Amino acid sequence: MTRSDLVEELAARFGQLSQRDAELAVKTILDAVSEALVRGQRIEIRGFGSFSVNHRPPRLGRNPRSGEAVHIPSKRVPHFKPGKALRESVDLRPGTAPEAAPKASTD
Length: 107
Prior knowledge:
The chain is of the alpha+beta class. The chain is built from three helices and five strands. It has a three-stranded antiparallel β-sheet with strand order 1-2-5. Helix 1 packs across helix 2.
């Protein structure tokens, strides 16, 4: 799903919202999430998940073409951890049953 798909879905679900209003709502929410992560804050949406910023320390990597050692500086990266409700709803897709684990042979 793309950003424009999300705008269309929002406008379709809420008839009182115009396409422009739905676009503004999606942009506002995504901008607020981005700005909070830039400030290093954690965002938690109950039932959906949480966004946070992880710190990756500097490390020594390798150039795959030449094999030469390359210094990779430290960086901050966004991280998403799905909530329990989201994990369970993704695992139990509508119309399909979860696959049973194969039974161990007792021979």
